[in-house]
Amino acid sequence: MRLRLDLAYDGTEFHGWATQPSLRTVQGLLEGALAQVLRLEAVPVTCAGRTDTGVHARGQVVHLDVEPESLAGAAGRSPVPPVDALLRRLNGVLPDDVRVRAARVAADGFDARFSAVWRRYAYRIADDPALVDPLARRTVLAWPRRLDVDAMNAAAAGLLGEHDFAAFCKRREGATTVRTLLDLRWDRDPAGLAVATVRADAFCHHMVRALVGAMVAVGEGRRPPGWAAEVLARGVRDAGVTVVPAHGLTLEEVAYPDDADLAAQALAARRLRSPAGAHDG
Amino acid sequence: MRLRLDLAYDGTEFHGWATQPSLRTVQGLLEGALAQVLRLEAVPVTCAGRTDTGVHARGQVVHLDVEPESLAGAAGRSPVPPVDALLRRLNGVLPDDVRVRAARVAADGFDARFSAVWRRYAYRIADDPALVDPLARRTVLAWPRRLDVDAMNAAAAGLLGEHDFAAFCKRREGATTVRTLLDLRWDRDPAGLAVATVRADAFCHHMVRALVGAMVAVGEGRRPPGWAAEVLARGVRDAGVTVVPAHGLTLEEVAYPDDADLAAQALAARRLRSPAGAHDG
Lengths: 281, 281
What we know:
alpha+beta; 10-stranded mixed β-sheet; globular
């Protein structure tokens, strides 16, 4: 029996998603909470996007496999459905910087990682002292110079579509860096922040933050808009591309196909990307 | 020479606005930073709304009086105007949970407290587990039961206007509790949170949080909408009115009249309210 959990977390106090010995990670805490609530030795989970240290999530998705008896046992005599009881008990055990926002029995063929058709991230920048809100300082990068959103959008247009994003990725042995960038655009939100919406079938390691770093170089006027596409075409890391700080980045949403297409999507994604290739952010 | 500063702060780590010996307060930190930057012994400031422990601000306003020579000295050889140099240097000295968002020379007759014509607060509640966002947990109250916003608005309608709000205030010797409530309404924000907008000429101590507590009792169905106006009319604290937690409350905006009317407004407000009566939130 496979369950799907939707998670949100404040990445500030986490050493990223993936379990690491003796470090506070989201996966480590979640698996510990599941083991406690389900009274099992270990409950491995698989996530849609393995966020780095300091990166936040509002729309992280995970799956886990569990025996129906364990789930029923965890629910106890609760009058609500077992998955709802599980959600409540998990949130009772977890610290308040990570919340399970939904729990449900997954459709056949669902795989949090390989069934996903796209991931959407947001990167938020306050590029004026008057925009810096201490109430948002954990999720917004304060930048000392004004950014030209139109110039950044002009640069972004040259990066959309399927490309080898090696120039914007931390290389991993045996992993492809070909991705399809579906959206990369900058808007001013109602408060005046510069917000990037970055959506792709998947991301390689550091890709969003390197893309944003390249856009910022353009937005400041240090590089012309066409430079970003030139870097992409060269296919090697460029010293002009800075990986921007993690705390401005949030995994906002992961999309899945209709239930009937889950297994086919998972099969296609497994073929396309090596098992080590889905590290996000 | 009088300066106006616009401030924002995350109240989580502060023991409120007002200076208290050996406690971390916004006033204490700000006056310390001003003394350091202006190289003076003490720089007393006056604020528009003295927020309680844990209450946040996006639109706090303060004034301070300074000799032009001190301001020029603090600016040093900076090429920007002295108030802009002061803003930069203050933000360099202050911790990142309090930011000066604007600094300017105040118009004649300006008094951050007595010239204000109204203060506007917001109170934010996530009344469903699916709405609880760990990235907003410092500024949003998580409430375990759904709230009926229409019922809360019906209750609010009976409280608008000029009344003696003694039933919703922590009483202070010699201070009037007559206030003019200009707005009290609930909306769902785009994320689905229940957000109260509370605007009045001024507030007495605990008034916003007691008003919100009364609305929540109505929103849950524990009390009928007409009950709030009954409590108001009785004029004494009611055991059914809970003062909700501080962290959901943010001082969003303080409004001032046109420059020509600043002094007249200050005079009128001084007559209306005793010096001890403007404690907000």
